Amino acid sequence: MKTSRKHLLALTLLTALSPLAPTAAFAQLHLEIAKAPDQAPKIAIVPFNNDNGLYPIVETDLNRSGRFTSSSKNLPANAAINQIQASDWQAAGIPYVVTGQIKQTADGFEVHYQLYDVQKQQYLLNELLNVPASRIRQAGHMVSDAIYQALTGIPGDFSGRIAYVLRNPATPAERYTLQIADTDGEQPKTVLSSRDPILSPAWTPDAKKIAYVSFETKRPAIYLQDLSTGTREVITSFKGLNGAPSFSPDGKSMLFTASMNGNPEIYQMDLSTRQVKRMTNDSGIDTEARYTPDGKAFIFTSDRGGSPQIYRYDFGNGSVKRLTFKGSFNARGTLSADGKKIALVHRPSGSNYKVAIQDINTGIVNILTPTSLDESPSFSPNGQMVVYATREGNRGLLSIMSTDGRFRMNLPSEQGEVREPAWAPK
């Protein structure tokens, strides 16, 4: 294989297809529920007293959790803080009730909310939350996080963010836009606009910075951008390919793919000294490295065995182990926060590309998505959801699916195709 062809394949593996401090963007994603569970515990969301648009956010969040069915309409009774009559809700078969009230303060709003267990006839949550006026939507997501954790024992991820790339052919000067939005597609912010491709957004562990690959100098380079100030710096611009950045759990190192020595290999950079160490050395293409949660190893995609498959590299002894054996194509692997699952792009025999989840211990692969031409899976921090890019008809959009397959929602944009999602860490 010629080097130029290797470079092309490496870019395919990397992509599957004016720097700013994040500013308001109009290319909002639209939430569409594509699949909901047939049966799920009901949660009544009683409209909050003096509400400022918060309780509908909680209602939507809990509905898109895949675990519950929530509603603020056609309730059997009204209720306020500390005024729930269990019998009203028992007769309606509603096991949980959320009530709340909002008070304006000198600095913003005080949100008082409660979660009531009808069967036990006791409050599971009775909390006060003080937020500035500009963060009232965020407060709604925080209430949802608390309710989700109280009922499942798992931290909620509604208050998180997702980075993605929007491609709009109608605006050549800003054809590619790196954006960050809430997990429901609301409050999009533009990080970077460019006429040249933007690929592979990757969050730092503290979610304060984001790395990405830009072609603005007509060849790929990795940039690191501060999200609060908009300042950025070039991290790698070696000859040839520079791509697929990934940060270590402690934020001190970065893995990336480069072809500075002719073949696409994986390198590790010490971010304080900028010292670079080559990690792989094989005639095949090695790319898409991702650290394990404990930082002791990384997984990566390689075609060293003849087709793209996922391997594990151990920092302790330098050993490499193949992890995927089912299907003709396995790539874009990403690990859940507990390190027990890999979400990946999987091609079963005779089928298109789908997102699948492989159990690390057993090797069992479960195809997750009903869509095709899927790419770029990314776990939510709690491991209960996966966001990925896909196509439906002529639309390129994001889709979020629960890992049990019971719930799926789409996040399309009217302004173009949405690709390259990356869920922010907590």
Automatic annotation (TrEMBL):
InterPro entries: 6-blade_b-propeller_TolB-like, Tol-Pal_TolB, TolB_N, WD40. Residues 1-27 form the signal peptide. Pfam families: PD40, TolB_N. GO terms for cellular component: periplasmic space. Residues 30-123 form the TolB N-terminal domain. Keywords: Cell cycle, Cell division, Periplasm, Signal. Belongs to the TolB family. The Tol-Pal system is composed of five core proteins: the inner membrane proteins TolA, TolQ and TolR, the periplasmic protein TolB and the outer membrane protein Pal. They form a network linking the inner and outer membranes and the peptidoglycan layer. This is Tol-Pal system protein TolB. It comes from Acinetobacter baumannii (strain ATCC 19606 / DSM 30007 / JCM 6841 / CCUG 19606 / CIP 70.34 / NBRC 109757 / NCIMB 12457 / NCTC 12156 / 81). The gene is tolB.
